[in-house]
Specification:
By secondary structure, the protein is mainly α. Helix content is 50%, strand content 0%. It has one domain. It has 7 helices and no strands. Helix 3 packs across helix 7.
Length: 155
């Protein structure tokens, strides 16, 4: 005797966990509000930069990068916007190799003391970060963008 009903499909795991809900969009470690998606798309659109470009940008903005801890702002920009990686010690070594004196561990200490630095640089506005830090971030980005544009037009 055949049944006209379709056999019940076995759905385990995540189906049972969400009690049958259909997942159309999934975000891991993030949120989908408009500002967050804009900042993530900015990160994905950017290409990598060279250590030379970082050094030029730092040297063109000495008013913002006059202390060792201030280099943590540049590190966060390079991490979030230019895909340089999330290794603060490696960033410090790169600075040292290029002639900028910074004690190893400085950036990690700054990241520990200032929790907003763990967030994407475009979320800092929401974290009530001081105007001077935001200005340093924006000026550093502007310098890098200017160098990238000049290099593209020269090639």
């Amino acid at each position: 005797m055949e049944s006209s009903e379709t056999p019940e499909q076995h759905m385990g795991g995540i189906y049972n966990y969400f009690q049958g809900a259909t997942i159309h969009n999934i975000v891991i470690n993030g949120n989908m509000n408009k500002n967050a998606s804009e900042s993530y798309s900015r990160t994905e659109d950017k290409k990598g930069i060279t250590p030379e470009q970082v050094i030029k940008a730092l040297r063109n903005t000495p008013e913002f990068f006059s202390t060792h801890a201030s280099y943590s702002i540049a590190f966060c920009v390079c991490r979030d916007l230019y895909n340089m990686g999330d290794n603060a010690t490696q960033f410090e070594r790169m600075l040292i190799e290029k002639g900028i004196s910074i004690p190893l561990g400085t950036i990690n200490n700054a990241l520990s003391r200032k929790p907003f630095m763990r967030y994407n640089i475009y979320k800092w506005d929401e974290k009530n970060v001081t105007a001077s830090v935001l200005k340093a971030r924006d000026s550093f980005i502007e310098q890098i963008e200017n160098h990238m544009i000049k290099e593209e037009t020269n090639s």
